[in-house]
Write a structure and sequence with these properties.
- The structure is a single chain.
- By secondary structure, the protein is mainly β.
- The protein has 2 domains: 66 residues, Immunoglobulin-like (Sandwich); 80 residues, Immunoglobulin-like.
- Helix content is 0%, strand content 58%.
- The strands form 4 sheets. Strands 6-5-8-9-16-15-12-13 form an 8-stranded mixed beta sheet, with no helix packed on it.
- A hairpin with a 4-residue loop joins strand 12 and strand 13.
- The radius of gyration is 24 Å and the shape is elongated.
- The N and C termini lie far apart (66 Å).
- The model has no long low-confidence stretch (mean pLDDT 86).
């Protein structure tokens, strides 16, 4: 078996060493696998994460200390901690997907309950690019904004939101923080 062969075209010839020399030659093409692709979506009410994966036929998923081998393209896992470490791999050459999912009320959102505007305090967040997504109680995305932290308070116009519970998710790099809020 030949291992770690880089992608490319190869000619392989196999021959015998007995009295009659017989040789067969073949041309083969070694291709790279599809890239590993992972998309996560959270169910904040039931504290679960659903992974949608592609790029391979088998995946190794590690959530905290639990390791799961799966051939499914979609799998739902429980988030049983405040700080959840997710790692997904397949073939070594496809790389590794990592994400930290934090389920705590460490963000400060005010007022709560809110009416026309919801303010997110990002003063404890390091400067850089981040994203705020707000989901309704069914998991439907109702607000999405990518921005660079320049001020301590990020106001969000919520006048079009219906009354009820929402989940504000702040993503900074691979870290996601979630807070539950209520529109009166």
């Amino acid at each position: 078996m030949i291992e770690n062969l880089p992608k490319g075209s190869y000619d392989i010839c196999i021959g015998s060493s007995n009295e009659e020399y017989i040789q067969s030659c073949y041309s083969i093409i070694v291709q790279e696998p599809e890239p590993l692709s992972v998309t996560t979506s959270m169910d904040f009410v039931n504290k679960t994460v659903t992974l949608k994966v592609s790029g391979s036929t088998n995946y190794i998923i590690q959530l905290n200390e639990e390791t799961i081998e799966s051939s499914l393209n979609s799998i739902t896992l429980p988030l049983d901690r405040i700080n959840n470490e997710l790692v997904v791999t397949s073939k070594e050459c496809q790389g590794t997907y990592t994400e930290t999912i934090i389920l705590e009320d460490s963000l400060i959102a005010f007022p709560n309950p809110f009416d026309t505007f919801l303010n997110i305090d990002v003063s404890n967040i390091p400067e850089g690019s981040m994203e705020i997504k707000i989901f309704d109680i069914t998991g439907k995305l109702v607000f999405n904004d990518k921005f660079t932290v320049e001020e301590n308070i990020r106001p969000i116009n919520t006048s079009s939101f219906k009354s009820g519970f929402y989940f504000a998710q702040l993503t900074i790099g691979e870290v996601k923080k979630v807070i539950k809020v209520f529109k009166s």
